[in-house]
Specification:
Order of helices and strands: HHEEEEEEEEE
Number of helices: 2
Helix content: 10-25%
Structural class: alpha+beta
Radius of gyration: 30 Å
CATH topology of one domain: Immunoglobulin-like
Strand content: 25-35%
Strand order of the largest sheet: 3-9-8-5-6
CATH class of one domain: Mainly Beta
Largest sheet: 5 strands, mixed
């Protein structure tokens, strides 16, 4: 019986160790390959997109966003209190809990905004380049 157990343990050990081979040759072959050059456009293209601001804990999160012209900012209120996003040239309706509102910034500049219901709330800022 002990001889059979030794044989089984030996076979199990051989099977387990057979997967532990030296991979150094494969790694070296991969490292010695010449990288394929990537083609980059002569002028970087910055595409407008949608960025998100949460109103949470009576604060705008993130408080500042840097964007390119044509970027849309979408504010979503996750507070239980209502908020109005108010900036130079834009103003949202009252945003109750889970309400969202979007505005697209087509001009360059720095746009400060606040909540007109809670003026003591920290202000937000959108920097459009």
């Amino acid at each position: 019986m002990k001889a059979k157990l030794k044989l089984l343990y030996s076979i199990a050990l051989i099977v387990l160790l057979s997967g532990c081979t030296d991979k150094t040759e494969q790694v070296n072959a991969t490292m010695n390959q010449t990288p394929v050059p990537t083609i980059t456009p002569p002028f970087p293209v910055l595409e407008p997109s949608t960025v998100y601001v949460e109103i949470r804990g009576s604060a705008f999160n993130p408080p500042e966003i840097k964007a390119v012209r044509g970027t849309t900012v979408k504010w979503t209120n996750v507070d239980s209190a209502g908020h109005i996003v108010n900036g130079d040239g834009f103003r949202s309706p009252i945003l109750n809990k889970r309400d969202s509102w979007s505005y697209t910034f087509n001009d360059s500049g720095v746009f400060e905004y606040n909540c007109s219901i809670y003026p003591s709330m920290p202000h937000g800022r959108i920097v459009v380049e």
